[in-house]
Design brief:
Belongs to the AIM41 family. Its main location: mitochondrion. It is found in: Mitochondrion. The protein is an all-alpha fold. It folds into three domains: 63 residues, no CATH class; 89 residues, Hypothetical Protein Yqey, Chain: A, domain1, CATH 1.10.1510; 65 residues, no CATH class. Helix 4 runs antiparallel to helix 5, helix 6 runs antiparallel to helix 7 and helix 10 packs across helix 11. The longest helix has 22 residues. The chain is elongated and about 75 Å long.
């Protein structure tokens, strides 16, 4: 390359870094910026330079610039939207190993066929999984998927009970539930395992009631006053993957407050 002449990748990088995607005049700038966003790549100099170099080299029939690694990128910063050939962060509590790979593949396919509903659901689920990584009480992948399903079922119920009923929103939420349900097949939890979890929760509730010394003849006001202490005690006894709402409901049921 002639000295003093910018490689097309560097020139394009300069345009993208200093122009808004909404005002950039160069068609390639907008196109490759969208491409990097689809691939979930951070807009930092080296990462953006590498991907632009590879794609623009194919378009312009030039040799790409040498690949520059990003030595400061830690495992925890690896994006769930990155290439399907990459491995997601080891710091995330793993479910089935191929769940994330399947989500990435489905995301790519939904973008290809322009299935906006599936695309948005998968992006949302990947975001929930990534957020779970940074939470103090990390959830398993199965718990995250179930939580996403539960949230949409509640939204579907609310939309149906509204006045007037929002049928279109109800239909959309139920459609998203069906998309999410197929990812439950990646988990091996059986009905017996769920029954075992329920038994563990019931035992924790009964033990907490005994430890607190709450009499079966306690008044409703006494039971109501002990509700918070019991819920906290049960949370300390059971696995962190139990949903707080399920724990509270189990305690209320045991106290006859439902």
């Amino acid at each position: 390359m002639v000295a003093g002449v910018l490689h097309p990748s560097n020139l394009l990088l300069h345009q993208i870094r200093f122009q808004s995607p909404h005002t950039a005049e160069d068609w390639h700038s907008r196109r490759f910026l969208r491409k990097t966003e689809e691939m979930g790549l951070a807009r930092n100099g080296i990462g953006l330079r590498n991907v632009i170099s590879r794609h623009l080299a194919r378009e312009s029939n030039v040799s790409p610039l040498p690949y520059l690694p990003r030595p400061w990128a830690s495992k925890s910063s690896v994006s769930y939207f990155s290439s399907s050939n990459s491995t997601h962060s080891d710091s995330v509590e793993k479910g089935p190993d191929d769940l994330i790979a399947s989500l990435r593949a489905d995301l790519k396919n939904s973008m290809k066929i322009k299935d906006l509903t599936q695309r948005d659901v998968i992006k949302s689920l990947l975001g929930d999984l990534q957020n779970s990584e940074h939470n103090k009480n990390r959830q398993t992948h199965e718990k995250v998927v179930n939580s996403a399903i539960k949230k949409r079922l509640e939204a579907a119920k609310i939309s149906l009970e509204s006045n007037p009923p929002r049928l279109e929103l109800n239909k959309q939420n139920l459609q998203e539930v069906e998309i999410l349900k197929k990812y439950l097949t990646f988990f091996s939890s059986s009905q017996s395992a769920q029954d075992s979890n329920q038994e563990a929760l019931t035992k924790a509730v009964n033990d907490s009631i005994q430890q607190l010394g709450l009499s079966p003849d306690a008044t409703q006001q006494e039971r109501q006053n002990s509700l918070g202490k019991l819920i906290k005690s049960v949370k300390d006894k059971v696995d962190s993957n139990f949903d707080s709402k399920d724990i509270a409901n189990a305690v209320r049921k045991a106290l006859g407050l439902c």
